[in-house]
Design a protein that fits this description.
108 residues, Jelly Rolls, five-stranded antiparallel sheet, four-stranded antiparallel sheet, 9 strands
Amino acid sequence: MTSETIYFEKLEDLIESFPPDSILSRTIYQNGSIKTILFGFHPGQELSEHTAAVPALLHFIKGEADLVLGEDTKTAQTGTWVRIPPRIPHSIHAKTEVLMLLYLLLDD
């Protein structure tokens, strides 16, 4: 591996435990093009409606959640992948314990 290679063997280990009444977010990588944030949700936790100024990618690693994308409601589950254009309102409500990666595309 080179000095620029970043390797996480198991993403879950980065957020082993967190309070049940909160959402944990941890930036795991950032450069001039992309910011990658790992989120952990307990069942019932919600990321309220918001927008992003840049395109965003969501990759659900574990769990199930209700996902609102503009006017559409979808179910996200392990393996779900979503691209959200800039300024589209969206929210996430965890049905189970959820582990999700958010990629913000800073120079898209």
